[in-house]
Amino acid sequence: MVKELKKKVKGYIACDASDRTDYFLREAFKGEVSDKEIRFPKELGAVHPFNFEGAEEIYKNVGIIGGAIDKYVDSIVGDFTVKTNTKKEKENDNVQAIIDAFVKDSELSVNLRPWIREALSKGNGFMELDLKESKVRPLNANNIFIKRNVKGKVLKYNQWKGKMQNFKPSSSKVIPFEPHQIAHLPTNQIAEDAYGLGFIAPNMKQIDLLVGNEIDLHKLISRKAGAPIHVKVGAEGESVQPEDIDDFKSKLQFMQSRTEWVTDGNIKMDFIDFKDVGKNFTDTINHDVQMILFGIQIPAVLMGMDNIPEGLAKVQLEAFQRKIRAIQEAIEVIIEQQIFKPLLVANGFDAEVEFIWNLPGEDEINNRVQQIKDLLGGMIQIDENLRRMLQLELARNLNIENAEDYLRQPEVGLDDQMDEEKKQLELDAQKDTKPENPERKKEESIAQPEVPRAKPAANQKAKLHMKGCGCGQQLTESMSGDMTIKEWVNLQEAKGLNYKDYTANILSRLRTDQFDSLKAISEADISNGLLETQEVEKLRIILKNGFKKNQTIKQIENEIKDNLMLRDRLNDGKVVASANNRPNSIARTETVRLANMGILDTYNENDIKKVRFLAALSDRTCPICEELNAQVYNINEANGVIPVHVACRCTWTPVVE
User: Per the structure, how many domains does the chain have?
Assistant: First the structure.
């Protein structure tokens, strides 16, 4: 029992945790329903809201209705997939296997069509479920009755195939079903009603008018086709003997296509002219057809009526697609909650199940792809999370496999965080008063003339990355460890630019960079020491914090060592970098690589066309970097040149022309 409530504060009831749980769990629906039950026998349940058998006959015998219902079914039903997700990742494969086996064994894709057809034509589709044996089958709604309590809860479904006057409570013809044994799909359901109305019942009067007018028109046409003849016997004003009329009537009864007549002037023969009576019938029938199509909400163009203006046809088709999607969503919920969820519970799993219909048509996909491209490449500024969502959707529409593994996922609070980062960068730039490193001062004083020598060819560039040049040792570990990122990457602040300008572009590059030289794309890569996706994402966060806070190389190295699971780096089975040394080399190399990408982006934004290679000159500079020093590159050729090797400290300076 709920304890006595002690006080009420600002409209809220105050009670302790145990009281709250007890109180709210006792809440239930208070509203009641009033089903009109079958007077006799009452045991069956609520009376059908209309004649289901009549709706079935209309579907079978009225072509336009059968065609419209089938058009809906064809548009709704297609290929589908079922995705599962459990709280325990190890169980996902087992759960998915259970669902896939059930879909196959029950022939669910085949049984969906008659189930949905019943729901659309009669307002109610009933699917019998045998989850233990992985079987389902649609039942004829004509014979199914719903029994509910006053709160609207379904107590049971009853099937009765006999005549009502022959009903007996103990009759073996009554077959009861427990609620979990039936999946009930209602359509066009009015609130509180046990049954749906479907598409035929609301249009019944209009259908009757259409059928009646069709019958009358065909009677008229058959009479016109027989060419009725009116014969006048005798002269006007003169009486004619009845036997003369009967004699001519008997001759007409045996008239055939080869019969010819020769008469005197007292006999006149004419065809009866119905004039525009047939046209009036046709106009009325066309009106009836349009009213039915409006009632069923199906575009006239889909039913072969080609006199529809193009603009109106497009609007109708778009509305039809929205209607189809609404029905699909309702079906998805029924399948997930009444079929798949009980199936998994029966097998001891607590999992989320998502039933997904087939992909949209090619035109719809192409239109959506174009919309996404316009948003991503347009002038409108969009938030980072929206950009990520659009990129993921674009990849799915283009059927790019495993796109989620390579594209960044939206993150809660990311956009607010990025705004804060931008503000923090501005503050950091103002507070950046750290004394300059003496070595950097010495390097800045060295003149850097443009040297007209050849740039390295492709094969020469390949040699720059070869192991053994010794450049990784041009600074001792202690010296490099104490350097901040700004000092380590030898960042030269060009005129009009500062660390804040560079850092914004570096962080932008960092958010989208794929870390191709570190990231594994196969099991073999993982065995050789490359990083799995989650490890790359951890590294991304570590470097982001490093650039934002201008951390030292040693701080970044420690973060890598503490948070990443690094293995020995192998090449052809030989260790080329030990796990112990990799945090240092990754920290030193990746900061330089990302920094130079951001530097080039900054120069590009400021319309700088050429850049000069600037080596960190000292007695420890390697011969390769020393040879490249002062060489000028077109800015579009500079990408990927730096870092030249592991732990490279070279950078780019602008060439102002």
Answer: 4
Burial of 323-355, coded b for 16+ CB within 10 Å and e otherwise, reads beeebbeebbebbeebbbbebbeeeebebebeb
Per-residue HEC secondary structure of 512-530 comes to: HCCCCCCECCCHHHHHCCC
- 605: in domain: yes
Return the percent helix, strand and coil in the chain, to nearest 5. Answer: 50, 15, 35
Q: Does the residue 236 lie in any domain? A: no
Q: Which residue has the higher pLDDT, 287 or 49?
A: 49
Q: Residues 608, 477: one domain?
A: yes
Q: Which amino acid is at 54?
A: G
Quickly tell me which residue has 């870390």 as its tokens. Answer: 515
pLDDT digits (tens, 9 = 90+) for 376-432: 776 566 777 787 888 888 887 777 766 766 677 777 666 676 666 666 666 665 555
Please tell me whether residues 6 and 89 are part of one structural domain: no
- Please indicate, yes or no, whether residues 365 and 430 belong to a single structural domain of this protein: no
> Is residue 338 assigned to a domain?
no
**Which amino acid is it at 150?**
V
Query: Do 387 and 531 have their domain in common?
Result: no
What domain range includes position 638?
A: 414-655
CA dist 461 and 464 (Å) reads 5
DSSP string, 457-470: -HHHHHHHT-TTS-
> How high is the pLDDT of residue 7?
44
* Residue 138: pLDDT over 70: yes
Signed CA dihedral, 454, 457, 460, 464: sign only: positive
Phi, psi of 553 (to 5 degrees): -60, -35
Residues 115-124: what's their mean pLDDT?
Answer: 95
Does residue 15 sit in the same domain as residue 120?
Answer: no
Q: CA torsion angle for 46, 49, 54, 56 (degrees, to 10)?
A: -80
Q: What is the largest CA-CA distance in the chain?
A: 142
What is the DSSP code string of 63-84? HHHHHHHHHHHHHH---EEEEE
Residues 483 and 624 placed together within one structural domain of the fold: yes
Co-location of 23 and 110 in the same domain: no
Are residues 639 and 542 part of one domain?
Answer: yes
Among residues of the chain, what percentage have pLDDT more than 90?
21
- 94 pLDDT band, cuts 50/70/90, is confident
Cα–Cα distance for residue pair 105/129, rounded to 1 Å: 13
303 is a domain residue: no
HEC secondary structure over 86-140: ECCHHHHHHHHHHHHHHHHHCCHHHHHHHHHHHHHHHCEEEEEEECCCCEEEEEC
Mapping DSSP onto H, E and C, the string for 142-191 reads HHEEEEECCCCCEEEEEECCCCHHHCCCCCCCCEEECHHHEEEEECCECC
CA distance 146 to 88: 38
What's the predicted TM-score (pTM) here?
A: 0.50
